[in-house]
Amino acid sequence: MTIDRALIERDVSRLLKRGVAEIIVEEEMLELLRSGRKLRLKEGFDPSFPDIHLGHMVALRKLRQFQEMGHQVVLIVGDWTAQIGDPSGVSVTRPMLTAEQVRSNAETYMQQFFKVVDRGMTEVRWQSEWYGKFTLADVIQLTSKFTVAQMLAREDFSARYSAGRPIAITELLYPLLQAYDSVVVKSDVEFGGTDQKFNFLLGRELQTMLGQRPQQCFMTPLLVGTDGKHKMSKSLGNYIGVAEPPDVMYGKVMSIPDELVMQYFELVTDLPEEELEEFRQQLAGEANPMNMKKRLAREIVAQLHSKADAVEAEAHFARVVQRGEAPADIPVAYAPSDTPDIRRLLKSCGMVGSISEAVRLINQGAVEIDGQKVIGYQLPVKEGSIVRVGKLRWCRVKIDPEKAEKA
Prior knowledge:
- With 407 residues, the protein is of the alpha/beta class.
- It has three domains: 5-220, Rossmann fold (3-Layer(aba) Sandwich), CATH 3.40.50.620; 246-322, Tyrosyl-Transfer RNA Synthetase, CATH 1.10.240; 332-406, Structural Genomics Hypothetical 15.5 Kd Protein In mrcA-pckA Intergenic Region, Chain A.
- Helices cover 48% and strands 12% of the residues.
- It has helices spanning 5-16, 26-34, 54-68, 79-84, 99-113, 128-131, 136-143, 148-151, 155-162, 169-185, 197-209, 246-254, 261-268, 273-284, 289-304, 307-322, 342-348, 355-363, 401-406, and strands spanning 22-24, 40-45, 72-77, 122-126, 189-193, 216-220, 332-335, 367-369, 372-373, 386-389, 393-399.
- Strands 1-6-5-2-3-4 form a six-stranded mixed sheet, sandwiched between helices.
- It is globular, with a radius of gyration of 24 Å.
């Protein structure tokens, strides 16, 4: 299959400029696109965690744009490396998982992945297809291609080595394994954030060593999270998940700092450049950023859910957040008594993901019961009490020891 040249020239600026941090090598990338050949676009993921947020979506949207031109996405599930984890315990982002956990996480991940990327033009490959057959001789042969000095050129390894902090040999292997993935699937282009640059370049180098044409490295910017300070991350709690309910998604978008509005428009919406330029001029003047955020929130919710969901989410935000009214469909939280442990109550009704998150929110003054701020962990409630966390999460208390025990 060949790609239409007129389509390439029309879309090249959108593909290679907007939402792009760096391309290595841009001239080669352009040459590949103009060749009309169907390209193999590699995207790998670590199934240590199942969920995708808007930060991931920046690169996924690029994949979708390339698919719309006829190119093939190759999604690599890192099931083999996820089962190794980091036995040294140094890396909290690489827990050791069972095969069942990996499969479960991968299934959830792919459901969310295909909310953005076209399933019909995606080839899914599992690392265990090739690493399950690896012998010690294969590992030694792979490691012989690179030096310790090359590994220490990676910024985080270099910083830890200089500070005398441990680096597990296992960690040094991960970039090599990711590079070998590119060889196996014959990757033309590898996609990801700028934090993956070192690994991408290793893949490019290994392909050259083994007689393949080196892949292009297509890096997208790191989306800043809702805190306005750090890159979006589940571990930092500053994320907007692609599978979150429309009203939660809308509310989180409305919480981003004003200065991030244009970054989000550019990276996670399809609004044309002409319209974005109008927004920039309005924001530079006296326009109310709230109106821009509402437009942004509608665009994101409509993209990941539907236009009808976006309209309802906006109405919910106006009713609950702006006017302070309780939602009509508040979930029920079952309490064992009239003086429950508030931390467990919040977890049982799904308002927090863990007891530690409940503690943090209570200590921050973000939890209220019937309009009164919670300042302890075991407090009186009554049948029908309304618990609120922040501006977006609510539940109604029902005292039922038996159901509370099951929850």
